[in-house]
Amino acid sequence: MTTHTPKPWKAGLTAGVPNGNILAGIGQNGEDWIAAVKPFSDQFHANIRLIAAAPDLLVACEAIVHASKLNDPALGGVAATLAEIAISKAEGATGE
Predict the structure, then answer these.
(1) How far apart are CA 88 and CA 93, in angstroms?
(2) Which of 28, 74, 86, 88 has the smallest count of CB within 10 Å of its CB?
(3) Looking at residue 1, what is its pLDDT?
(4) Nearest 5 degrees, angle CA 21-CA 15-CA 48?
(5) How confident is the model over 48-64, as pLDDT tens digits?
(6) Residue 26: CB partners within 8 Å, gap ≥ 6?
(7) What is the pLDDT of residues 11-24, one digit of tens each?
């Protein structure tokens, strides 16, 4: 299975990143474009935040699945925290 570009991904709302671009820590200069989102709709900013949060959302989902398979309340709490952080990033609450 092919893996995705490692996180962190940054949205165009982050200082120093052009509006509408999703960047990640790869490439010769330390960052490369993952995607470009054109500002054609009212959902533009929400869309780029959601795309930039994708790796964090994946980690949270994997943790939730793992915790549920083990039926471990402690792991469930960690998974819930990861999910809350990822959701905050997707919603723009973290400033990323």
Answers:
(1) 5
(2) 28
(3) 66
(4) 35
(5) 888 888 888 988 998 88
(6) 5, 6, 32
(7) 765 566 666 677 77
Q: Using CA atoms, how far apart are residues 27 and 58, in angstroms rounded to an integer? A: 22
Please give the Cα distance from 32 to 52 (Å, whole number).
13
| Confidence tier at 74 by pLDDT (50, 70, 90) | confident
Extract the tokens encoding 35. 């995607």
Q: What's the mean pLDDT in 54-82?
A: 86
Q: The tokens of 1 are what?
A: 């299975």
Distance CA 24, CA 44 (A): 19
Q: Strands, DSSP E only, in the chain?
A: 9-10, 21-24, 32-36
DSSP-derived pairing of the beta strands 32-36 and 21-24 = antiparallel
